[in-house]
Amino acid sequence: MRSLELFAGGGGLGLGLHQAGFHASAVVEWDKWSCDTIRNNKALGFPLVQGWKVVQCDAREFDFHSVGEVELVSGGPPCQPFSLGGKHKAYEDSRDMFPTAVSAVRALEPMAFIFENVKGLTRESFANYFQYICLQLTYPELTKRPNEEWQEHLARLEKRKTAGRQTGLRYNVVTQLLNAADYGIPQVRERVFFVGFRADLGIQWSFPQPTHSLAALAKAQFGTGSYWERHQVTKQDVESQRARLTPRLASLLKSAEAELRPWRTVRDAISNLPDPRSRNARKVLNHVFQDGAKPYPGHTGSPLDLPAKTLKAGDHGVPGGENMIAYADNSYRYFSVRESARLQTFPDNYVFHGSWTETMRQLGNAVPVELARIVGASVAQQLVPLHQRRLEAVRA
Description:
The protein is an alpha/beta fold. It folds into 2 domains: 2-210 and 367-395, Rossmann fold; 212-365, DNA Methylase, Chain A, domain 2 (Alpha-Beta Complex), CATH 3.90.120. The chain has helices at 12-19, 32-43, 98-108, 127-138, 150-163, 214-223, 226-231, 235-254, 266-270, 337-343, 356-365, 369-395; strands spanning 2-6, 23-29, 54-56, 72-75, 112-118, 171-179, 190-198, 212-213, 261-262, 302-303, 324-326, 332-334. Strand 4, helix 3 and strand 5 (112-118) form a beta-alpha-beta unit. The longest helix is centred in the C-terminal third of the chain and has 27 residues, at 369-395.
């Protein structure tokens, strides 16, 4: 099935959706370094991006009709207007690209769309604007008038919804805040997803249920001990970890979620990589040591035996105290680019282009590939039968 990928970044969402069965007719991204990463992987023969047409431009200037008919529109509009680390200007921020996402849906009338953004968008202070985004995606043909304030447009959208009109282009939109760790990604990364299906298709859908849990990790570590055996961790190190979890340990082990699969940890993700300070690290793509890591109050890195804390992009490089490992001996070091890519579930042969700052920005902004695949596969499962019937009708 064909798709259009907007705000593609370094390719995380697009790669996962490709694995789910969607083939991007075009990927649109304004950032040079991100486009260079995708182009470089095409040149190196990385299979998943070979069919991608990379368009480096402002998505607001892209001709949506140039891609032809697509089954899916997807993308992660820039998160800075809503990020906890940003200026929180939302609709007053020129980087708010949700109006562009709605324009793409209106122009192409895809069977479905998938958009992703930061948890900050779900804050109470953005509640009205969050509702505004949802209603625009529900009724993309009811456009904002010239010189109309967004609150006035919201009021018209609300009237359309309460009137119950069923005519025109309409989407059934569902949203959910997903934690990547709950789906086997070795990182605690909470992101809100917007998924919509064209209303005339009559599709019933819900988000995939979590498959992994902290309770199951606690069981593997302090119930059965299988986690420590697998990683050959010493008894002394195990006891130090137990002390950290003791107040919650009993309730975790009794939780029904303990029957899920364990959260994947930093150690799970990177244990078979050499230390980036070693000579063997030169044999691994993007696995270069970056000096200067140190903790700050409230920013103390990621312990080895839990999922990593959320990777951060930062406007001017990696923020202090972020994107680093916190060892049991109170030493710290930054994750290498390759380790960060593991935490975002990128394939090991996918190469990131640019300086450490630029590549870490791409990774900090990315959708975990595996999470994109899981959500995308669930959407594709609904669309494939419809797509096949349409192809059969055309052949007939």
